[in-house]
User: Which sequence fits this backbone?
C-alpha cells in the first residue's frame, strides 16, 4: 500500500489554492499529496508539526522513553568521515570525536552501516 497523501491530521482544513478541488458548485478543500523533498510523509512543515503535536507523545511512549542518561565516552565516540578529492579517490577514516584520533578505513568499511570502531555504550 502506497500512502501518497499527506498524513497531517488537519491538512484538508488549510485555506490554500492548491487544496481547493472540484467544480464550481462542489468545491472542497482536500488533503495534498505528500512531498518527497523535505517531509517524506507530509506536504509541508505545518502538517508535520500538526501530526507531531497530536501523536508525538504517543509515539515516544510506544517506542520507549529514555529513563537513563547516555554518555559519549572515548570508547563510543568513533564516527566515519572522508576527505573529498576531485582528482583521486576519497580518503576514508574513522575519527574519535573526543580524542581526535583518526584511523584509516576502506571504502567498503565506510559504506557498511554496521561497521564501527565503537566498543562502549
Assistant:
Amino acid at each position: 500500500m502506497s500512502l501518497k497523501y499527506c498524513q497531517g491530521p488537519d491538512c484538508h482544513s488549510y485555506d490554500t489554492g492548491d487544496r481547493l478541488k472540484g467544480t464550481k458548485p462542489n468545491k472542497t478543500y482536500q488533503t495534498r499529496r505528500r512531498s518527497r523533498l523535505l517531509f517524506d510523509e507530509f506536504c509541508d512543515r505545518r502538517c508535520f508539526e500538526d501530526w507531531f503535536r497530536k501523536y508525538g507523545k504517543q509515539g515516544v511512549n510506544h517506542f520507549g522513553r529514555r529513563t537513563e542518561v547516555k554518555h559519549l565516552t572515548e570508547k563510543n565516540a568513533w564516527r566515519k568521515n572522508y576527505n573529498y578529492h576531485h582528482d583521486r579517490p576519497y580518503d576514508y577514516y574513522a575519527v574519535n570525536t573526543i580524542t581526535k584520533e583518526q584511523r584509516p578505513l576502506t571504502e567498503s568499511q565506510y559504506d557498511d552501516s554496521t561497521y564501527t570502531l565503537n566498543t562502549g555504550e
The chain has two domains: 11-63, 71-121. The two ends are 38 Å apart (CA to CA). The mean pLDDT is 90. The chain has two helices and five strands.
